[in-house]
Amino acid sequence: MKVRPYSEVDVFSSEPYRGNALAVVHEADGLSVEEMQRFATWTNLSETTFLLPPTTPEADYRVRIFTTKEELPFAGHPTLGTAKAWLDAGGSPRPDGTVIQECAAGLITIRVAEDQLAFAAPPLTRYEPVDEPLIRRITGILGIPRENILDASWLVNGPRWIGIRLSSAQEVLSLQPDPGKAGDLEIGVVGPYGPMEETQFEVRAFVGGDPVWEDPVTGSLNAGLARWLTDTAVASAPYTASQGTVLGRRGRVHISLSEGKIWVGGQVTGCIGGTVRL
């Protein structure tokens, strides 16, 4: 075992401990995949990341991202959280105010602003309507009638999200899904607020087969939803989505569109710093 720098950050909330926590192991050279997965399972957070030197001069650092059960090629809140941890440990943005992250999905650009980080969403690798038998299975998981689902789409960008659109934020908040029926499906649900509300959409994310069944605030899902909602003219960017409300969190995900790219942003706070023997 080796003593390595370690940090935990809170992502997508202006209030510390009201967003989504991320564990970050710095100087992770020499760790095997098995050791990384074991530690990620032990933290019992939705994701744990491992900072490594980049393999290309185009990147500032490389990251590997693990849930409690598997490695992901990309995920949103780990991208912003890892960038924050790297910056807090002495990293510096490039002259144009960006950081370039290397991960299994490729190079991800992160914009660094005074009070917010934002990543450029990678392309969706599966983006198509969901077939009717699967939609009907999802109605059983969510415990709602078929007519409540206005639309459904695959939104795969690392995690294998299926986006489900309901008619209102209140419908989203009222869901009482059954994790025992979910299998290995990853389901994201979105519904709009009224015109005078603080945020424009409420989002919830359900991950079948994971101890962290409902993810508090989810960057990758919001990235996929933003592409889908703007493409179908359900939403126009910029907009803000809230997530984690039913869990007592106050997640805020800020979506913007620039030169055809979806940008997913939020505030990130460093909460814990120290070392880990790993």
Automatic annotation (TrEMBL):
InterPro entries registered for this protein in UniProt: Phenazine_PhzF-like
One Pfam family this sequence matches: PhzC-PhzF
Domain of life where this protein originates: Bacteria
Protein name as annotated: PhzF family phenazine biosynthesis protein
